[in-house]
Amino acid sequence: MALTKAHIVNNIQNRLCFSRKKSIELVETLLEIMKKSLENGENVLITGFGKFCVNEKRERRGRNPATGEPMTLAPRRVVTFKCSGKLRDKIDKKEQRKQTR
Amino acid sequence: MNKLELIATLKNEANISKAEAAKVVEIFFGNMAEALSEGERVEIRGLCSFFVKDYKSYIGRNPKTGEKVVITPKKLPFFKCGKELKERVDY
């Protein structure tokens, strides 16, 4: 089962003794702060977890995969995530990892 | 924006103490890291979802020297941007 906002709200409520309403509000506020920052083109860097980056994509030529028709894709901005080394090791369960870069 | 700035902004916007804001941020990202380390999916509506992807062993090359290197199987988190965030970040 996937971890969702509801689980995180429960944990905040139980561990910090906030009311249910306040716990929900805190999580929503936190999300809104992150989204606003990314919306303004500012990266969000969480030590030990990773980095949410805003990347500018230039205009490029693509194809409609259904019809094969060439078309121009407009420039756009996307969010990418760069996993921190600490989180990567935690997921990979490796104490030490050779530097691959 | 880094973690400290995130904590400070949360403190101001939610009217809680700095220690409380720090704990909220810790729990939020701690929960996600824990779930991923157990191979569980994470789904935060409006922001993003993560799942752990298994990569098989393969023979790669050191881009600098051109030498062949064996890459052992690994697990990496895969990030997928949420719909709301995607629409808000784009022009």
TrEMBL record, chain A:
Key words, A-Z: DNA recombination, DNA-binding, Transcription, Transcription regulation, Translation regulation
GO MF, one example: DNA binding
Keyword Transmembrane helix attached: no
Biological processes per GO annotation: DNA recombination; positive regulation of metabolic process; regulation of DNA-templated transcription; regulation of translation
CDD domains (UniProt xref): IHF_A
GO cellular component: cytosol
Sequence similarity: Belongs to the bacterial histone-like protein family.
Protein name (database record): Integration host factor subunit alpha
UniProtKB/TrEMBL annotation, chain B:
InterPro entries, A to Z: Hist_DNA-bd (IPR000119), IHF-like_DNA-bd_dom_sf (IPR010992)
Record bears the keyword DNA-binding: yes
Keywords assigned: DNA-binding
Gene3D superfamilies assigned: IHF-like DNA-binding proteins
Pfam families (alphabetical): Bac_DNA_binding
A cellular component annotation (GO) from this entry: cytosol
Molecular function via GO: DNA binding; structural constituent of chromatin
Family membership: Belongs to the bacterial histone-like protein family.
Name by which UniProt lists this protein: Integration host factor subunit beta, IhfB-like
The species this protein was found in: Desulfonema magnum
